[in-house]
Design a protein that fits this description.
Layout lengths: L12 H4 L18 E8 L9 E6 L4 H12 L6 E5 L2 E2 L16 E6 L9 E9 L3 E6 L8 E4 L14 E9 L2 E11 L1 H4 L7 E6 L7 H12 L3 E8 L2 E6 L2 H11 L3 E2 L2 E2 L1 E6 L12 H4 L11
Parallel strand pairs: 1-5
Antiparallel strand pairs: 1-2, 3-4, 3-5, 6-7, 6-9, 7-8, 9-10, 11-13, 11-16, 12-13, 14-15
Length: 297
């Protein structure tokens, strides 16, 4: 009899594996480069120019619009400032980046275009030896303690451990450091008690006004006599002062001043005399209504 054939070996598991076909990656959809028509309105003093309509694409740099408009006025673009919804716009931005849409209106006013401001953050000085130190950011997730040198401190400002500061972040390679550091609540004042205190409330602010811009505006008028500045609601803010006399003088000086195309209204709201206040004036606390007390029977 013939020998039985040997059973076939099972196929190798390696051979059974099939290579997975890679799915082709979907190409990112390109943002449509739409054409729109906007209006540029002349808000310069003693000017009677009519509105100018401009056609542009969403990818168009606004510097082209500014240059063409200035040529039409016979003026230098360096003497003009352009605003959108009360805030400055810059030539290196595109129409799409700032959210321009069909029929949007840019306003042209007199004045040098301001330099672009870096985003500013707050923190506390935790180390300072007179020439260098460190700042602990107030916001979590800001990358931890940041270095500061005397060259990064605003002129006329001196730092001490415990000072509450506001600053912008500079970068050089992988290094991060604080620049344009200014003190808004000195450590010495934060440790003292004061029975006096007053708050000036500002109204009719442009909704796009930033706290830094508001502080710069207040400082240019009343100097360094004010404390903490808080944006309490849309179009409203509160500014702390150590004394009622300072607040009244500041309210008189600020009332009617113009910021971002809006005329500000300033009023004094005196602090409750029954409370003890730190001169740093935590306006968030000051703005809260006093808790009612039960009257004795």
């Amino acid at each position: 009899p013939e020998p039985e054939p040997e059973p076939e070996a099972p196929p190798s598991p390696v051979a059974r594996k099939k290579k997975k076909k890679k799915k082709p990656k979907k190409a990112k959809e390109a943002v449509p480069d739409e054409i729109m028509t906007i209006v540029v309105r002349d808000r310069r003093k003693d000017s009677s120019e009519e509105d100018t309509t401009v056609k542009l694409r969403t990818s168009t740099k606004l510097a082209r619009v500014f240059g063409a408009y200035a040529d039409g006025l016979g003026a230098s673009v360096d003497t003009l400032r352009f605003l959108y919804k009360g805030g400055d716009v810059y030539g290196d931005e595109t129409a799409g980046a700032i959210g321009l849409a069909e029929g949007a209106c840019l306003e042209c006013v007199d004045g040098d275009p301001p330099a672009k401001q870096k985003k500013r953050v707050t923190g506390t000085v935790v180390r300072w030896d007179g020439s260098r130190g460190g700042i602990e950011p107030a916001e979590q997730g800001s990358g931890g303690r940041i270095a500061v040198r005397v060259s990064g401190v605003r002129r006329g400002t001196s730092l001490r451990v415990g000072d509450k500061v506001e600053y912008a972040i500079g970068r050089k390679g992988d290094a991060r450091f604080a620049v344009d550091v200014m003190v808004y609540a000195p450590a010495a004042e934060a440790d003292e008690d004061s029975k006096d205190g007053a708050v000036v409330t500002l109204a009719n602010l442009n909704y796009d006004t930033k706290r830094y811009d508001l502080k710069e505006h207040i400082g240019s008028i009343v100097g360094k006599s004010f404390g903490r500045v808080e944006l309490t609601a849309k179009g409203r803010a509160a500014v702390g002062f150590r004394t009622l006399a300072q607040a009244e003088a500041a309210a008189a000086a600020l009332d009617g001043t113009e910021l971002a195309g809006r005329s500000l209204s300033a009023r004094v709201r005196k602090e409750s005399q029954g409370r003890r206040r730190a001169p740093s004036l935590d306006v968030a606390e000051a703005a809260a209504p006093a808790s009612p007390r039960a009257s004795p029977r």
